[in-house]
Amino acid sequence: MPRVLGKPRFVLTSLFILQLQYAIKSVRINIMSLDKQDVVNIAHLARLSIDAQDIPNYVENLSSILDLVEQMNKVDTTGVQPMAHPLDEVQRLRVDKVTEENQRDLFQSTAPETEAGLYLVPKVIE
Amino acid sequence: MHTKTIAQLSQALGKGDISSEELTQQFLNRIELHDKELNSFITVTADLALTQARAADARRKSGEATPLTGVPLLHKDIFCSQGVKTTCGSKMLDNFISPYNATVVEKCNAAGMVMLGKANMDEFAMGSSNETSYYGPVKNPWDLAAVPGGSSGGSAAAVAARLTPIATGTDTGGSIRQPAALCGITGLKPTYGRVSRYGMIAFASSLDQAGPMAASAQDAAMLLNVMAGFDARDSTSVERDVPDYTVALDDSIAGLKIGLPKEYFGEGLDSDVAKVVDDAIKQYQALGAELVEISLPNSQLSVPVYYVVAPAECSSNLSRFDGVRFGYRCEDPKDLEDFYKRNRGEGFGSEVKRRIMIGTYALSAGYYDAYYLKAQQIRKLISEDFVQAFKKVDVIMGPTTPSVAFNIGEKVDDPITMYLSDVYTIATNLAGLPGMSIPAGFGNVSGKERPVGLQIIGNYFAEDKLLNVAHVYQQATDWHTKIPAAYS
What we know:
The structure holds two protein chains of two kinds. Chain A is mainly α. Chain A has helices at about 1-30, 35-45, 55-70, 105-110; strands at about 115, 120. Among the domains of chain A are: about 1-30; about 35-70, Histone, subunit A (Orthogonal Bundle), CATH 1.10.20. In chain B, strand 2 (about 70-75), helix 4 (about 105-110) and strand 3 (about 115-120) form a beta-alpha-beta unit. In chain B, helix 2 runs antiparallel to helix 3 (about 45-60) and helix 5 (about 155-160) packs parallel to helix 6 (about 175-185). The termini of chain B are close together. Chains A and B meet through helix 1, helix 2, helix 3 and helix 4 of A and helix 9, helix 10, helix 11, helix 12 and helix 13 of B.
């Protein structure tokens, strides 16, 4: 069956590859040169305050790391199964039964601020 | 006593030549004398150590000792230790007294070992020079101008200067083997899943693995016997029997097939390191091993792949540090967002922030396929290279690092050059394989000797084979017995 549909599929595929190459090129331009605004956006997503004076340094460092990572594009990975776990093991399951004791007081002994067993943070709603 | 291996200390304790309390006090004295200079400890737990030592002496008397009962050790400050400050080298955890023990700490305690303290390290294990630590850089005992390597730099320097007879370390991209090489000691990163990660502060969960850092392969085997094993509290721990790693140490290596990956001997390798590694390999030939040239073609991409996978996993793991339940908390936050951002922004150092940002970017919408998925696919290819290689050879050998220890401050402003110092170690973590570094000689920087490590990589769960191959070499040579003159 694939034989019959072989030809049109090939045309579609090459069109798709062309589009993909274009997409990768445009992504690359994005990737390779992060600007100040990108760094500010990423820092916000990661909930990290960074000093304004450090931003140019992050722009340079992060861009050079992404340049290094860019070497991955030299390899054709079509059809390669991604490796998520070094030993290809599956998640181990356990019986659905309570095994942990309540150790709230112990764990809260290291907390910056607690009250009545609750963790305190700045006011969220006025 | 400080020049003795733990195998020898175990015997001396067993015969009653010395008590654990005396031995522990001797090491505490050495720490007091030398560590202001080296900065290899973040915390010295003198009182706890002496209490544990007295308990060990009582246990020896009652006839219930294990081989390592009463032997002092140093834990990398990445392992949670109950009632003791556990910082991971970060301002974020400067006030963190762990409420529980890591499994590794628990197992060492159960064996009756004595904890001397917690070792300095790169912040959250992110670094190759120990310069990212909030507690300041560690110095290399062979040359105080040089870095000890990282991230387990405190563990490596302390063992090299014999401020502790043995230490624990962790290895995500080379963090046991690289500092072991640069400090001239023996370090082993076991197969992923061999040692429990429970209570070991997570950096990149699919790569992190703990292992021993020691004066010899025999010592590493003895500590691995204590550390290894299945742990239900670590979901990636492997359910598989642990052999006695000391049993096969003396097996003959006649006919051993050693694979030499051509990619590990090419451009970028310093000539003094190449010479030492060549000599070590000739020594193996003299011991009856056969050399086989192999290729690991995709290993060239291990650094780029690593700098997607590790930051991606780190950005996820480190999201737990928000200052709500433990750790650093900023002064007078404006609102909740300011609170999170400043807790994290002020609590983390710049290398950690860089990696969190790279990971956040790589995992953000629209980029996942181009980065994380692509990296995992190449990771598969890197791993397949090893599978093919191990059809032909028993172990793989090469340099642990491309150069001897560099100077403190030399690479600190250039992350990429720093990252490339792990170029030969990272592929092993990506594949999940065990790897070792053993001292094999010295290079020379401005008239001072700096150690060179030989890397030995084994097949999955072949730690016993690695230790055997390393031990046989150490029986025929004396590089592993060298101690820097100022500490001998």
